[in-house]
Design the sequence.
């Protein structure tokens, strides 16, 4: 070891003990410096571990460091050897160095703390996280960036906190066939001189490849995200893909010519097979378009939906609203338990999928609207629709306050809130509990093993 001191300069090596984990699973150390405690975030360090830490970045109020070595006698019993060879550099997973049960406990306490701090809930009764029996190869959607490096097209995930692509080898959270297909397409790009994208000067043709698989891998969708709708050697590329991977049922070009971090552009052009992929969930069939949302972890989605619908405690006479419905999954599964479902979603393609999904499953007691949920619910209120229950499943930014205010005005008895972001969930629960709703059950579900992301279902009743 070179230097050990508490002078906080970039490159200096200090000794610190991890007190806690941040919400992203990063170790937090408090280092005495100039008569006060200074916070240093250290990736991969676990609570109570003492380590020599190299300072890599400093701001006025906190800094970042990387582990040089952990004192062996302080090594956490919760530590596990990450099974992924790229874990140390890849930005995909961030808590693979915690054993799986410890990662579930971490998620539970992170959620509890967020509900206390942001939600101002005194004693949130968070249930143990519903885990996955085999938490690997679960992602049914993979989106891999393509770039240009020394006139070669490369692909892989971004290295942690950067846009630098690291080669895609084995990935433990997506099916091996998805990894294989992405690398196969990369090789085709080099064979047919299709240049990877350059973010700086926005040159090159191929920006991303998205692969979506159904649960039994009998159907595979490939989306080539290009800067323009012009794929050289298109028919040769298609036939090589199909010959090698006969289960590919759909190849689509998506055009994204904007300077943006958003992966998909506005327009899709199917070049082979269907413009959807079909999957089965809790006994129903669902068509999913390239731009439609679909939960990424099949096994856990069935547990999530079953939990949500059990908590909804639906009656045959109930009217249910499914807000942020995507391709209609929750509303359609719930439809046999209730009298009528009203569903709303903002993405046109998802609503088109949802309507077809109702047809192929022969479900007639559901109607879909393509609209902002916060606007559509006001229309339903004006139409005097009396809902007994509502499922809200918003994106990470949570529910629009207008939607929550209308739920309150409509006096909807039961709310099932499905959230993929504890912070916005806590904000919305604070609002709902201040306006007469009572939280009965908070049930987290591990949809994203090896990452710090968490899905939560909350059951609320109007007092
Ligand atoms: C987390 S997904 C849930 C989808 C669906 N419930 C499911 O489980 O598959 C959130 C959905 O909300 C949609 N969305 C985003 N903002 C919206 C808004 N303001 N109004 C309606 N839908 C919205 C997204 O397009 C996405 O389909």
Sequence:
């Amino acid at each position: 070891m070179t230097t050990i001191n508490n002078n906080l300069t970039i490159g200096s090596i200090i000794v610190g003990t991890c007190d806690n984990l941040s919400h992203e699973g990063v170790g937090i150390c408090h280092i005495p410096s100039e008569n006060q405690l200074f916070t240093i975030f250290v990736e991969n360090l676990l609570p109570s571990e003492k380590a020599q830490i190299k300072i890599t970045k400093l701001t006025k109020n906190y800094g970042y460091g990387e582990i040089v070595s952990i004192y062996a006698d302080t090594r956490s019993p919760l530590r596990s050897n990450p099974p992924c060879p790229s874990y140390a550099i890849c930005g995909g997973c961030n808590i693979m160095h915690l054993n799986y049960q410890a990662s579930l406990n971490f998620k539970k306490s992170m959620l509890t703390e967020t509900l206390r701090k942001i939600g101002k809930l005194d004693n949130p009764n968070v249930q143990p996280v519903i885990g996955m029996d085999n938490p690997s190869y679960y992602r049914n959607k993979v989106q891999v960036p393509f770039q240009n490096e020394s006139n070669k097209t490369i692909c892989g995930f971004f290295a942690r906190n950067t846009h630098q692509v690291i080669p895609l080898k084995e990935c433990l959270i997506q099916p091996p066939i998805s990894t294989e297909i992405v690398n196969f397409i990369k090789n085709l790009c080099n064979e047919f001189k299709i240049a990877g994208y350059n973010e700086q000067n926005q040159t090159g043709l191929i920006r991303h490849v998205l692969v979506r698989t159904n649960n039994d891998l009998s159907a595979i969708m490939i989306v080539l995200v290009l800067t323009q709708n012009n794929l050289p050697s298109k028919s040769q590329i298609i036939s090589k893909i199909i010959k090698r991977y006969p289960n590919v049922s759909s190849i689509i070009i998506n055009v994204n010519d904007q300077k943006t971090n958003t992966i998909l552009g506005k327009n899709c052009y199917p070049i082979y097979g269907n413009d959807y992929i079909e999957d089965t969930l809790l006994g129903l069939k669902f068509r999913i378009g390239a731009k439609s949302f679909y939960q990424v972890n099949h096994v856990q989605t069935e547990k999530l939906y079953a939990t949500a619908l059990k908590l909804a405690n639906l009656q045959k006479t109930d009217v249910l609203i499914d807000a942020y419905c995507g391709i209609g999954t929750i509303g359609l599964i719930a439809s046999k338990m209730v009298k009528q479902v009203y569903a709303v979603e903002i993405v046109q393609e998802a609503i088109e999928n949802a309507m077809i999904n109702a047809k192929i499953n022969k479900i007639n007691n559901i109607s879909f609207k393509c609209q902002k949920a916060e606007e559509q619910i006001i229309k339903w209120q004006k139409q005097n629709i009396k809902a007994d229950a509502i499922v809200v499943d918003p994106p990470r930014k949570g529910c629009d306050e207008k939607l929550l205010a209308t739920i309150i005005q409509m006096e909807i008895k039961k709310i099932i809130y499905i959230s993929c972001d504890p912070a916005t969930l806590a904000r919305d629960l604070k609002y709902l509990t201040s306006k007469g709703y009572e939280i009965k059950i908070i049930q987290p579900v591990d949809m994203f093993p090896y990452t710090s992301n968490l899905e939560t279902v909350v059951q609320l009743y109007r007092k």
In short: The chain has three domains: 13-74, 141-281, 297-462. Residues 293-295, 324-326, 329-330, 344-347, 350, 372-374, 393-395, 420 surround S-adenosylmethionine (CB under 6 Å). Confidence is low (pLDDT under 50) at residues 1-5.
